[in-house]
Amino acid sequence: MIKLIIFDFDGTLADTKKLILENIIKTLGKFNYKLEKKFVDILGDNPIERFFEDIGLEKGLIGKAAKLVGDSYSKEYMNIKLCKGFKKLNDIDRKKVIVSNNNTHFIKAALDFAGVNFFNKIYGYDINPE
Question: Which residues on adjacent β-strands are paired with residue 87?
Answer without folding.
Answer: none
